[in-house]
Write a structure and sequence with these properties.
Elements lengths: L4 E5 L20 E2 L2 E2 H11 L4 E6 L5 H5 L4 H9 L3 H11 L3 E6 L6 H6 L2 H4 L4 E4 L3 E5 L5 H12 L2 E7 L9 E9 L2 E9 L10 E9 L2 H7 L11 H11 L2 E5 L2 E5 L3 H13 L5 H13 L7
Parallel strand pairs: 1-4, 1-6, 4-5, 8-12
Antiparallel strand pairs: 2-3, 6-11, 7-13, 8-11, 9-10, 10-12
Bound molecules: 1-O-phosphono-alpha-D-glucopyranose.
1-O-phosphono-alpha-D-glucopyranose binds next to strand 11.
Length: 296
C-alpha cells in the first residue's frame, strides 16, 4: 500500500524563463550547487520513493546525462585525482532507479502523466512537478505527510496551499470541505479560474499522489485550458467518482518557473547555508545601503 514510484513531468518548454531555458531545461537550472531536479529527486528518495520516471521532451537530454555515468568525465576526474568529485558523482548516479520517456507532442500535463501508465501499473504513485521544490517545516517531508493520507484513506491526495485570491488564476484550484485541520475532502477542481470564478483560494502546490484510476479518467479527459489535456480536469472528474483529498502543506513551495521566485529561493537557500550566510548578508546590507540600489 505504500507509494514507491514517482513521476516527474519535465517536458515543458519553460518559456517564462526564456531565453535562459531555450537549450537548458528549466529543471536543470541551479539552485545552490545542484540543479532543481536533483533537489526534487533527493526529496523523493528521502520520502521513500524507489523508482522515478522523468517525462522529458526533445532537447532535454541533459536531465538524463545528469543522473547517468559519463565515462569520459570519470576518466578525467581519476586522471586528476579529484576524489571528492568522483564520490559525489558516484552517489548521484545511484540515488534512485531512474527511467525516462519522451512526450513527443506537448499536449499538456495530463497527457504527460498518462505516459506513465505502463511504468506505474496498478499502484498508487506520486507526481512531483519538475519546477516546484516543496520544503517542509516539520521532520517529515511534505510527500511523506501526503503518503500518510493516501495510506489512511486509500485515496488520492493533492498537496495544496492557500494563496491570495488575486493569483488563483495561475493554479489548479480546489472545491471542497475541511474535514480536519489542513485536510479537505474535495468535490471538484478548476484549472486556472479567474478570481471571480474560483471555488476557493486553496491551490495545487506541485505535488500529487494518485490512485491508478486517474489513468482511466485521463484517457477520457478532453482538451481543456490552453488547448492542453489538464491533470486538474482529470482530478475534477476523479473527485466525482471516488474520494480525493487535499492536504494543506506544512512547508513552503518554491516556484522555480518564475524569475522573481527563482531569485528569492536562491537567496533563501544561500542564507540557510552555514558558509554563505554571513558573507552574503553583509554583502546584501552593504549593497542596499548604496544610493543607486535604494528602494524608490
Ligand atoms: C501547473 C498545473 C496547476 C498547478 C501548478 C503548480 O501549472 O497545471 O494546476 O497549480 O502547476 O505549480 P503551470 O505552473 O505548469 O502553468
Amino acid at each position: 500500500m505504500s507509494i514507491r514510484k514517482a513521476i516527474i513531468p519535465a517536458a515543458g518548454l519553460g518559456t517564462r524563463m526564456y531565453t535562459s531555458t531555450k537549450s537548458i531545461p528549466k529543471e536543470m537550472l541551479p539552485l545552490m550547487n545542484r540543479p532543481i531536479i536533483e533537489h526534487i529527486v533527493r526529496d523523493a528518495v528521502r520520502s521513500g520513493i524507489e523508482e522515478i520516471l522523468v517525462i522529458i521532451s526533445r532537447g532535454k537530454e541533459s536531465i538524463i546525462d545528469h543522473f547517468s555515468p559519463i565515462e569520459h568525465i570519470n576518466k578525467e576526474l581519476k586522471k586528476k585525482d579529484k576524489f571528492n568529485a568522483i564520490i559525489e558523482i558516484e552517489e548521484l548516479n545511484n540515488l534512485c532507479k531512474m527511467e525516462y520517456v519522451y512526450q513527443e507532442e506537448l499536449r499538456g500535463l495530463g497527457d504527460a502523466i498518462l505516459l506513465a501508465k505502463d511504468f506505474v501499473k496498478q499502484e498508487g504513485f506520486a507526481v512531483l512537478l519538475g519546477d516546484n521544490i516543496v520544503e517542509s517545516y516539520g521532520d517529515e517531508t511534505t510527500l511523506q505527510s501526503m503518503m500518510k493520507v493516501y495510506e489512511r484513506f486509500s485515496s488520492s491526495c493533492i498537496g495544496t496551499q492557500r494563496v491570495p485570491l488575486d493569483i488563483v488564476h495561475r493554479y489548479g484550484v480546489m472545491d471542497g470541505v475541511e474535514i480536519e485541520e489542513g485536510l479537505y475532502r474535495t468535490r471538484g477542481w478548476v484549472e486556472k479560474p479567474s478570481a471571480n470564478n474560483a471555488p476557493s483560494d486553496i491551490v495545487v502546490a506541485g505535488q500529487y499522489i494518485f490512485t491508478p484510476s486517474i489513468f482511466d479518467v485521463l484517457e477520457h479527459t478532453p482538451v481543456g485550458k490552453n488547448g492542453e489535456i489538464q491533470i486538474t480536469d482529470a482530478m475534477d472528474r476523479l473527485a466525482k467518482n471516488e474520494q480525493v483529498f487535499a492536504y494543506k502543506i506544512n512547508g513552503k513551495r518554491h516556484d522555480m518557473g518564475n524569475l522573481l521566485s527563482y531569485i528569492k529561493s536562491m537567496v533563501e537557500f544561500a542564507l540557510k547555508d552555514d558558509k554563505l550566510r554571513d558573507p552574503l548578508s553583509s554583502w546584501i546590507e552593504a549593497t542596499l545601503s548604496k544610493d543607486k540600489y535604494r528602494r524608490r
